[in-house]
Amino acid sequence: MTAPHSNDRSIAAHLQLQRADFALDVQLNLPGQGVTALFGPSGCGKTTLLRSIAGLERAHGRVTVNGDVWQDDAARHWLPTHQRALGYVFQEASLFPHLTAEDNIRYGLRRTPAARQRVALEQVIELLGIAPLLPRKPSTLSGGERQRVAIARALATSPRVLLMDEPLSALDAERKAEVLPYLDRLQAHQDIPVLYISHSLDEVARLASHLVLLRAGRVVAEGHTAQLLARLDLPLAHGDTAAAVVPATVTQHDASDHLTTAQFDGGQLRLVGTQARAPGTAVRLRIQARDVSVALVPPAYSSILNVLPVQIAAIQPEAPGYAMLQVQAGATMLLARLSQHSVQQMGLCAGQSAWAQVKGVALLD
Ligand SMILES: Nc1ncnc2c1ncn2[C@@H]1O[C@H](COP(=O)(O)OP(=O)(O)OP(=O)(O)O)[C@@H](O)[C@H]1O
User: What region holds the ABC transporter domain (predicted)?
Assistant: First the structure.
C-alpha cells in the first residue's frame, strides 16, 4: 500500500508492544533521510523497536516509510518482513559461510523484485570498496571486511530504509575506524534513510543528524543531535564524555601553520593539524565540555587558539566537585565542565557574559 503523497519524506513508527516485564510505547515521526540514532541504556527497547519496524516483532500501531505503509492496524494492514523494503545489518555480519562475498550480495539482489531495484550492484561494490573481496568466503575476511560486505548485501536490495543494530560494536577501534568512512560515503552517495542503534556517543555524534533517546520503552527526547547533546536536562550532557557538536563551514586553510578556520553560527573556530579542506566545505566539529573553560575578562597572552564571547545560559551541579555550564555563542550552545570551586569563586551565574576558552576542537567527518 502506497500513500498518495509519494514525496512524503518521513518515517512514522507509532508502536506499542507488551511483554511480561517490558512495554514499548513510542510515537515517533522521524526524518525520511540521513542517519537517526537510537540511543539509551541496555534493555530500553532499541532492538525491539527496530525489529518491530521490520515486522520481526508483532507490535501494534502504524509504520510508514517515505510514503509506504507497512503497518496500519487500525486499517487491518500488516506486511510481513519480506514485503517490507528494508535492509537489516546486525552486530555480527550474518553472511552465508558457504557462499563467496559476491554470491552473498547477489543472493539479496535475487530476492528483490526487478521493479524495486534502484541501486546498481557495481555502485554498491564501489561505494563500500569491496571489489577485491568478492571472490572470498566470509571466513577469510576480517570483521570489518565482513561488515562492509553485509552492508553491501543490505544495500543491494534497494531498501527504503536501512536498519543497523550496533553494526560496529563487534569491531575493535582500528576496524571501526576502517568502516566508519564507508558509512559517511553511504550518506553522501545514497539517499536511503538509516536507523542506527549505537551505545557509543562518539559514533552518534559522528554519524547521526537526528537522535532518539529511549528509556524503559519510551521516548525521553528526540530531535537534532547537536541540540540534544547540549541539553542539561538530559543525561548525555553530563559527565566526562559530554560534548557539543557544532555544524560549521571551512573558510580558510593555512598550510604553513596547518591551521584550518571554520565559521559557525556564533563565531570562528580554528583547528590545528587537520587535513586541508577546501573553503566552503561543510564540517561537523566536536567540542568536549572538559576542554572548555570560562573567563570573565578577555584572556590575554594565552596559548589557547579559540576564545569566544558567550553568555552563560545555565549552570547545573554535577558529580561531586563539578558543574556543567551551558554557554551560548550566537545561536550555538556549547558545554563547559568546570569545578564547583571555580563557579563559586568567580560568582558565575546564568545570564552573565563571559569568554569561553576552547582548548580542543575535533573534526568529526
Ligand atoms: N525475545 C524476547 N522475549 C522476552 N523479552 C525480551 C525478548 N527480547 C528482549 N526482551 C526484553 O525486552 C526488553 C528490551 O530489550 P531490547 O533488546 O529491545 O533492548 P535494547 O535497548 O536493544 O538492549 P541492548 O542495548 O542491551 O541491546 C528487555 O527487558 C529485554 O530483556
Answer: 6-241
| Pairwise CA distance, residues 176 & 154, whole Å | 19
Count CA within 13 A, CB hemisphere, residue 183: 30
The set of cell numbers assigned to 258 is 596547518
Q: Which residue has the cell 532492538?
A: 47
Name the residue at shortest CA distance from atom 3 of ligand 1. Answer: 19
Q: Is 52 in the pocket of ligand 1 (CB under 6 A)?
A: no
CA 16 to chain centre: 24
Probe residue for ligand 1, chosen from 15, 19, 26 as the CB with the greatest number of ligand atoms within 8 Å: 19
Neighbours of 281 (CB within 10 A): 15
Instruction: Answer for the pair 312, 326: CB distance below 8 angstroms, yes or no.
Output: yes
Residues facing 288 on adjacent strands: 243
Q: Distance, CA 184 to ligand 1 centroid (Å)?
A: 29
Q: In testing the pocket of ligand 1, which one of 48, 197, 213 has its CB within 8 Å of the most ligand atoms?
A: 48
Domain ranges of the chain: 10-231, 243-364
Burial class (CB in 10 A: 0-12, 13-18, 19+), 303: exposed
Cβ–Cβ under 8 Å, residues 328 and 310: yes
Strand partners, 322: 339
The answer to whether the CB of 42 is under 6 A from ligand 1 is yes
The interface predicted TM-score (ipTM) is 0.97
SS (H, E, C) 294-355: EECCCCCCCCCCEEEEEEEEEEEECCCCEEEEEEEECCEEEEEEEEHHHHHHHCCCCCCEEE
The pTM (predicted TM-score) of the whole model is: 0.89
